[in-house]
Write a structure and sequence with these properties.
2 copies of one chain form a homodimer. Chain A is built from 11 helices and 14 strands. Chain A is of the alpha/beta class and about 350 residues long. In chain A, α4 runs parallel beside α5 and α10 crosses α11.
């Protein structure tokens, strides 16, 4: 391992174009030995971002071998798993293989960890051609190596939970943490608890966001889901006050569905549907003076900005930041204290 | 004029695809007579969104006739001036020609108005082929007709200001209003006034955002500009506490420039640079626990979301909503009370 210190945000790994941050780079250098403040991870598994996997699945007509070849090709070309169409990545799981003496990440050789920074900025090599993956799931068995910078985030995997379950929770742990913060700030500012609607409330980030809103004592919670199957699941789990069915890309239908249980719209609307075109429905479903948090990577910035303006909607719109301090621990605490979350996540694990 | 009422948000004008809001539509119907709650405007002038004009200018190598043909072609095809590449539009100025009896907009026939909703959702026909426009400026003399829905926003043009000046102020009036609100909320939440950095502080939305931060008594204001010319202008006008020079697309340089005057970064960073790639610089320039407002339509949602996560940056990121109640009046009050704003806007008018 080199004793040369390096950029805490990984500038020394950028091959092209010069001068940009690793996430904006076309190509990273995943091969050079770790610097004195870096950590080397032996990769076991990748967890692809939902929007990225969906795009690959559609582009290759669901052909698993073609999807696998596409992922191998992207990583070989870019030195990271950064889907060039969606701009999104995912996360990984592995074992710490080497820790530079100047690393601030408090990791030890042999620790089993998940990275909580995106694959779009994580230098990565694949050494097995993803031979153990059928291409038909977001969870990708993988042999390879990844590098963490000084200012990366990695969480140790709990001994008492299956890896897949922890990974699934960590993957979306920014959503409940930010939802909780916005609920708290609304109460501090307005003097009452907000009503909360979650579009895509039956999914991973959606169910955790609902659990966070309940934990922070939201005035009322409503899940917007796409069909009876999801509605029945949520009603059975009793995670939420109300469940309504609407296509989140149908703005008028979404707003009308939310209004049936929260007249005038929600004080906080959380968008967890990973398909394009949910911006207008979220805006129309939100009360004047309310807030929308967009967690979907399929969100279009100009569509959101111009949509609110065009609807003369006085709503604050927040870009869902995947990082809020304490996010991993908060999400794991919801898994451990909210039976519906464990049940819904375990059902997904089985389905995968 | 028809006596049939209609959708307040213009759903009845959407030709394709079915069921979407006007802003998301590929094509609108600009020809049908106004409904009972609509307003018909005789158009005098279009003001193209800066990102849209820049894209057209680049795509056509600065050839004015080709740029003009492109705009005429977009409006003929889409029934609105909605740049298909940037997703952005602009605004227009004109005279009220007909007011439906059910319109809530409080307009009268003969009023000179500017629309404050985007051209991306305003039904528009052009009747003169833009013959009076040389294609070389964002301000487009135009004969045509536009329709306002019940839930549109239009501002009467002041009698005591030139139209071009009012239009230029209205075009970006969402920025100072939202900046002022975020400054106020920071003070309420944290108990002190925030420091404020504005990327692109010499431009229209940037200078008005700085003026708003000063008016709301920000702790310190710093403008980040691209060159000595802009820096000299801002220093001469004394609008701001500090001026620093950096390329906003160079994340590291931008953060370092802001840190020279606000160690640790700004509590609020406002992005008013209409070019892609400013997300990371804005995030790095912002203090932990701070806020970024993105007003540029060139902002990429996934780049912002993944960038903050990848940098482990605890910043709140806000999509700049063009509508905040009272925005037009607030921006005009800054024009009238801050000599630097009038001076800088008038200089731009002359330059155009």
């Amino acid at each position: 391992m080199s004793t040369v210190p390096s950029s805490p945000i990984g500038l020394h790994r950028v091959l092209a174009p010069a001068g940009v941050l690793p996430q904006a780079a076309d190509r990273l250098d995943p091969q050079s030995p770790p610097r004195s403040d870096e950590v080397l991870i032996a990769v076991d598994k990748l967890n692809l971002d939902a929007a990225s996997y969906r795009q690959l699945h559609t582009a290759h007509n669901g052909d698993g071998a073609a999807i696998r070849d596409a992922v191998v090709g992207i990583v070989a070309e870019r030195g990271k798993m950064h889907n060039p169409v969606t701009g999104s990545g995912g996360m990984l799981i592995g074992t710490v293989e080497a820790v530079g003496p100047d690393s601030p990440l408090d990791l030890n050789v042999g620790d089993r960890v998940a990275t909580l920074v995106s694959l779009t900025l994580t230098p990565l090599t694949i050494t097995d051609g993803l031979a153990d993956w059928d291409g038909l799931s977001e969870q990708v068995p993988c042999s390879g190596r990844a590098t963490l910078f000084a200012r990366s985030i990695a969480a140790r995997l709990p001994d008492d939970e299956p890896d897949d379950l922890s990974l699934a929770v960590f993957d979306v742990c920014g959503a409940p943490a930010l939802t909780a913060r916005v609920v708290d700030r609304f109460r501090d500012r307005v003097g009452r608890a907000p009503t909360v609607a979650v579009l895509g409330g039956a999914g991973k980030s959606g169910s955790l966001s609902l659990a966070a809103a309940v934990e922070r004592k939201a005035e009322r919670t409503v899940a917007v889901v796409r069909d009876d199957t999801e509605a029945s699941l949520l009603k059975h789990e009793k995670l939420v006050d109300n469940v309504v069915i609407a296509d989140a890309t149908d703005a008028v239908a979404t707003a009308e569905a939310v209004a049936t249980v929260i007249p005038g719209g929600a004080d906080l609307t959380v968008v967890c549907v990973d398909v394009p075109g949910c911006e207008h429905g979220a805006i129309l479903a939100t009360a004047e003076g309310g807030t929308v948090i967009f967690f979907s990577m399929a969100t279009s910035f100009p569509t959101a900005a111009l949509g609110a303006e065009g609807l003369a909607a006085d709503v604050e719109m927040i870009v869902g930041n995947g990082y809020t301090p304490g996010h991993a621990g908060y999400a794991m605490s919801l898994l451990k204290t909210v039976p519906a979350i464990r049940s819904m996540f375990q059902a997904r694990m089985t389905a995968d």
